[in-house]
Amino acid sequence: RCYRYAFLLMVLCLLHTEPNLRIFVSFFAVNLRSGAEQKVVFITARVHPGETPSSFVCQGIIDFLVSQHPIAKVLRDHLVFKIAPMLNPDGVYLGNYRCSLMGFDLNRHWLDPSPWAHPTLHGIKQLIVQMYNNPKISLEFYIDIHAHSTMMNGFMYGNIFEEEERFQRQAIFPKLLCQNAEDFSFSSTSFNRDVVKAGTGRRFLGGLLDHTSYCYTLEVSFYSYVLGGTTSTVPYTEEACILYKSILPFECT
Protein backbone atom coordinates (compact mmCIF):
# COMPACT_ATOMS: atom_id res chain seq x y z
CA ARG A 1 0.00 0.00 0.00
CA CYS A 2 1.22 3.50 -0.73
CA TYR A 3 1.05 6.00 2.11
CA ARG A 4 0.43 9.52 0.93
CA TYR A 5 0.72 12.38 3.28
CA ALA A 6 -1.45 15.16 3.40
CA PHE A 7 -2.66 18.50 2.17
CA LEU A 8 -3.68 21.53 3.97
CA LEU A 9 -7.07 21.98 5.30
CA MET A 10 -7.94 25.02 7.27
CA VAL A 11 -11.49 26.04 8.53
CA LEU A 12 -11.97 28.84 10.93
CA CYS A 13 -12.63 27.08 14.20
CA LEU A 14 -13.00 29.27 17.27
CA LEU A 15 -12.26 27.74 20.63
CA HIS A 16 -12.81 29.84 23.78
CA THR A 17 -10.35 29.61 26.64
CA GLU A 18 -10.92 30.45 30.26
CA PRO A 19 -9.82 34.14 30.42
CA ASN A 20 -11.72 34.92 27.21
CA LEU A 21 -8.60 34.38 25.18
CA ARG A 22 -9.31 32.74 21.86
CA ILE A 23 -7.46 30.33 19.66
CA PHE A 24 -8.10 30.31 15.93
CA VAL A 25 -7.38 26.95 14.34
CA SER A 26 -7.44 27.60 10.61
CA PHE A 27 -8.13 25.02 7.94
CA PHE A 28 -8.62 25.20 4.19
CA ALA A 29 -9.04 22.65 1.44
CA VAL A 30 -8.09 22.81 -2.23
CA ASN A 31 -8.95 20.55 -5.17
CA LEU A 32 -10.52 17.76 -3.13
CA ARG A 33 -12.49 15.58 -5.51
CA SER A 34 -16.17 15.33 -4.70
CA GLY A 35 -16.96 12.09 -2.89
CA ALA A 36 -13.32 11.03 -2.66
CA GLU A 37 -11.93 9.63 0.57
CA GLN A 38 -10.01 12.30 2.45
CA LYS A 39 -6.56 11.15 3.53
CA VAL A 40 -5.68 13.33 6.52
CA VAL A 41 -2.54 14.17 8.45
CA PHE A 42 -3.37 16.00 11.69
CA ILE A 43 -0.61 18.18 13.17
CA THR A 44 -0.67 19.92 16.54
CA ALA A 45 1.91 22.17 18.19
CA ARG A 46 2.72 24.28 21.23
CA VAL A 47 0.82 22.26 23.85
CA HIS A 48 3.74 23.21 26.13
CA PRO A 49 3.93 27.01 25.85
CA GLY A 50 7.64 27.32 26.63
CA GLU A 51 8.62 25.08 23.72
CA THR A 52 8.84 27.91 21.21
CA PRO A 53 10.80 25.96 18.54
CA SER A 54 7.66 23.91 17.93
CA SER A 55 5.98 27.06 16.60
CA PHE A 56 8.85 27.70 14.16
CA VAL A 57 8.63 24.11 12.92
CA CYS A 58 4.86 24.36 12.51
CA GLN A 59 5.21 27.69 10.68
CA GLY A 60 7.74 26.11 8.33
CA ILE A 61 5.33 23.28 7.52
CA ILE A 62 2.52 25.73 6.76
CA ASP A 63 4.77 28.02 4.67
CA PHE A 64 5.90 25.09 2.56
CA LEU A 65 2.44 23.64 2.05
CA VAL A 66 1.00 26.92 0.76
CA SER A 67 4.03 27.59 -1.45
CA GLN A 68 4.42 27.05 -5.19
CA HIS A 69 6.87 24.19 -4.69
CA PRO A 70 5.97 21.30 -7.06
CA ILE A 71 5.64 18.83 -4.18
CA ALA A 72 3.36 21.23 -2.31
CA LYS A 73 1.15 21.42 -5.38
CA VAL A 74 0.87 17.63 -5.52
CA LEU A 75 -0.13 17.59 -1.88
CA ARG A 76 -2.79 20.19 -2.43
CA ASP A 77 -4.29 18.11 -5.22
CA HIS A 78 -4.56 14.86 -3.31
CA LEU A 79 -4.35 15.16 0.44
CA VAL A 80 -5.43 17.02 3.55
CA PHE A 81 -3.47 18.50 6.44
CA LYS A 82 -5.31 19.71 9.50
CA ILE A 83 -3.10 21.91 11.64
CA ALA A 84 -3.74 23.22 15.14
CA PRO A 85 -0.69 25.48 15.60
CA MET A 86 -1.23 26.35 19.28
CA LEU A 87 -2.97 24.03 21.74
CA ASN A 88 -2.13 26.13 24.79
CA PRO A 89 -2.81 29.80 23.98
CA ASP A 90 -3.46 30.68 27.62
CA GLY A 91 -0.04 29.40 28.69
CA VAL A 92 1.71 31.15 25.80
CA TYR A 93 -0.05 34.44 26.56
CA LEU A 94 0.88 34.24 30.25
CA GLY A 95 4.49 33.21 29.60
CA ASN A 96 4.12 29.81 31.28
CA TYR A 97 6.68 27.15 30.50
CA ARG A 98 4.61 23.97 30.63
CA CYS A 99 1.12 24.48 32.04
CA SER A 100 -2.10 26.25 31.05
CA LEU A 101 -3.80 29.11 32.85
CA MET A 102 -5.53 26.56 35.10
CA GLY A 103 -2.20 24.93 36.00
CA PHE A 104 -2.63 21.79 33.89
CA ASP A 105 -0.08 20.05 31.73
CA LEU A 106 -2.46 19.61 28.79
CA ASN A 107 -0.34 16.84 27.33
CA ARG A 108 -1.37 14.57 30.19
CA HIS A 109 -5.14 15.01 29.74
CA TRP A 110 -5.97 13.51 26.34
CA LEU A 111 -7.78 10.57 27.95
CA ASP A 112 -10.61 12.71 29.35
CA PRO A 113 -10.19 16.44 28.64
CA SER A 114 -12.66 18.76 30.33
CA PRO A 115 -14.46 21.37 28.18
CA TRP A 116 -14.00 23.78 31.09
CA ALA A 117 -10.44 23.03 32.28
CA HIS A 118 -8.89 21.91 28.95
CA PRO A 119 -11.12 23.53 26.27
CA THR A 120 -8.68 23.50 23.35
CA LEU A 121 -7.74 19.89 23.98
CA HIS A 122 -11.39 18.92 24.34
CA GLY A 123 -12.28 20.58 21.03
CA ILE A 124 -9.38 19.05 19.09
CA LYS A 125 -10.06 15.59 20.51
CA GLN A 126 -13.73 15.84 19.49
CA LEU A 127 -12.71 16.81 15.97
CA ILE A 128 -10.27 13.88 15.68
CA VAL A 129 -12.81 11.37 17.03
CA GLN A 130 -15.44 12.68 14.58
CA MET A 131 -13.01 12.21 11.70
CA TYR A 132 -12.12 8.72 12.90
CA ASN A 133 -15.80 7.76 12.92
CA ASN A 134 -16.38 9.20 9.43
CA PRO A 135 -16.08 6.44 6.79
CA LYS A 136 -15.15 9.04 4.15
CA ILE A 137 -12.06 10.16 6.10
CA SER A 138 -8.85 8.21 6.59
CA LEU A 139 -6.69 9.66 9.39
CA GLU A 140 -3.27 8.59 8.19
CA PHE A 141 -0.96 10.38 10.63
CA TYR A 142 -1.08 12.34 13.87
CA ILE A 143 2.07 14.34 14.66
CA ASP A 144 2.42 16.46 17.81
CA ILE A 145 5.31 18.95 17.61
CA HIS A 146 7.41 19.66 20.71
CA ALA A 147 10.85 21.03 21.59
CA HIS A 148 13.47 19.35 23.80
CA SER A 149 15.62 21.26 26.27
CA THR A 150 18.43 18.71 26.77
CA MET A 151 18.78 16.59 23.62
CA MET A 152 20.10 17.67 20.24
CA ASN A 153 18.70 17.13 16.75
CA GLY A 154 15.16 16.38 15.70
CA PHE A 155 13.79 12.99 16.72
CA MET A 156 10.53 11.22 17.44
CA TYR A 157 8.66 9.24 20.06
CA GLY A 158 6.44 6.44 18.78
CA ASN A 159 4.24 3.73 20.24
CA ILE A 160 4.80 0.05 20.96
CA PHE A 161 2.24 -2.46 19.69
CA GLU A 162 1.74 -6.15 20.32
CA GLU A 163 1.55 -6.82 16.58
CA GLU A 164 5.15 -6.99 15.38
CA GLU A 165 4.24 -6.05 11.81
CA ARG A 166 2.44 -2.88 12.97
CA PHE A 167 5.38 -1.92 15.16
CA GLN A 168 7.84 -2.40 12.30
CA ARG A 169 5.70 -0.32 9.91
CA GLN A 170 5.58 2.68 12.23
CA ALA A 171 9.38 2.75 12.34
CA ILE A 172 9.52 3.41 8.57
CA PHE A 173 8.50 7.07 8.80
CA PRO A 174 11.27 8.22 11.22
CA LYS A 175 13.81 6.15 9.28
CA LEU A 176 12.88 7.99 6.10
CA LEU A 177 13.08 11.32 7.93
CA CYS A 178 16.60 10.42 9.00
CA GLN A 179 17.55 9.74 5.39
CA ASN A 180 16.07 13.02 4.12
CA ALA A 181 16.82 15.58 6.86
CA GLU A 182 20.36 16.19 8.06
CA ASP A 183 19.17 17.31 11.49
CA PHE A 184 16.93 14.30 12.21
CA SER A 185 18.30 11.48 14.36
CA PHE A 186 16.83 7.98 14.24
CA SER A 187 19.21 6.86 16.99
CA SER A 188 17.54 9.35 19.35
CA THR A 189 14.06 8.19 18.29
CA SER A 190 12.39 5.83 20.75
CA PHE A 191 9.22 3.76 20.98
CA ASN A 192 7.56 3.23 24.34
CA ARG A 193 4.35 2.91 26.32
CA ASP A 194 5.53 4.58 29.50
CA VAL A 195 2.66 4.84 32.00
CA VAL A 196 3.60 8.47 32.71
CA LYS A 197 2.95 9.30 29.04
CA ALA A 198 -0.44 7.56 28.83
CA GLY A 199 -2.28 10.91 28.71
CA THR A 200 -0.28 12.33 25.80
CA GLY A 201 -1.76 12.81 22.35
CA ARG A 202 0.62 10.31 20.79
CA ARG A 203 -0.19 7.57 23.34
CA PHE A 204 -3.95 8.17 23.52
CA LEU A 205 -4.51 8.36 19.78
CA GLY A 206 -2.15 5.45 19.18
CA GLY A 207 -4.52 3.35 21.27
CA LEU A 208 -7.70 4.79 19.75
CA LEU A 209 -6.93 4.71 16.03
CA ASP A 210 -6.64 1.53 14.01
CA HIS A 211 -3.58 -0.07 12.42
CA THR A 212 -3.74 2.18 9.34
CA SER A 213 -2.96 5.31 11.41
CA TYR A 214 0.41 6.38 12.75
CA CYS A 215 0.91 8.61 15.79
CA TYR A 216 4.14 10.38 16.72
CA THR A 217 5.63 13.09 18.86
CA LEU A 218 8.15 15.13 16.86
CA GLU A 219 10.82 16.75 19.04
CA VAL A 220 13.31 19.39 17.94
CA SER A 221 16.20 20.60 20.06
CA PHE A 222 16.13 24.04 21.64
CA TYR A 223 19.69 24.74 20.64
CA SER A 224 21.51 22.66 18.00
CA TYR A 225 21.94 19.51 15.95
CA VAL A 226 24.94 17.35 15.12
CA LEU A 227 25.76 16.71 11.49
CA GLY A 228 25.70 12.99 10.74
CA GLY A 229 29.09 11.30 10.80
CA THR A 230 30.78 14.30 12.42
CA THR A 231 31.12 16.01 15.78
CA SER A 232 30.16 19.40 14.32
CA THR A 233 27.16 21.08 15.92
CA VAL A 234 24.93 23.51 14.06
CA PRO A 235 22.86 25.94 16.12
CA TYR A 236 19.16 26.20 15.38
CA THR A 237 17.99 29.66 14.43
CA GLU A 238 14.46 30.80 13.64
CA GLU A 239 15.22 30.20 9.97
CA ALA A 240 17.11 26.93 10.47
CA CYS A 241 14.40 25.57 12.76
CA ILE A 242 12.01 25.05 9.85
CA LEU A 243 11.78 21.28 9.77
CA TYR A 244 9.26 21.08 6.97
CA LYS A 245 11.81 19.07 4.98
CA SER A 246 11.53 16.43 7.68
CA ILE A 247 7.79 16.15 7.05
CA LEU A 248 7.90 16.26 3.27
CA PRO A 249 5.61 13.64 1.83
CA PHE A 250 6.87 10.65 -0.01
CA GLU A 251 5.41 7.36 -1.08
CA CYS A 252 6.49 3.97 0.20
CA THR A 253 5.18 0.57 -0.73
Automatic annotation (TrEMBL):
<comment type="similarity">
    <text>Belongs to the peptidase M14 family.</text>
</comment>
<feature type="signal peptide">
    <location>
        <begin position="1"/>
        <end position="17"/>
    </location>
</feature>
<feature type="active site" description="Proton donor/acceptor">
    <location>
        <position position="219"/>
    </location>
</feature>
<dbReference type="InterPro" id="IPR000834">
    <property type="entry name" value="Peptidase_M14"/>
</dbReference>
<dbReference type="Pfam" id="PF00246">
    <property type="entry name" value="Peptidase_M14"/>
</dbReference>
<dbReference type="GO" id="GO:0006508">
    <property type="term" value="P:proteolysis"/>
</dbReference>
<dbReference type="GO" id="GO:0004181">
    <property type="term" value="F:metallocarboxypeptidase activity"/>
</dbReference>
<keyword id="KW-0732">Signal</keyword>
<dbReference type="GO" id="GO:0008270">
    <property type="term" value="F:zinc ion binding"/>
</dbReference>
<feature type="domain" description="Peptidase M14">
    <location>
        <begin position="1"/>
        <end position="251"/>
    </location>
</feature>
<dbReference type="InterPro" id="IPR050821">
    <property type="entry name" value="Cytosolic_carboxypeptidase"/>
</dbReference>
<protein>
    <submittedName>
        <fullName>ATP/GTP binding protein like 4</fullName>
    </submittedName>
</protein>
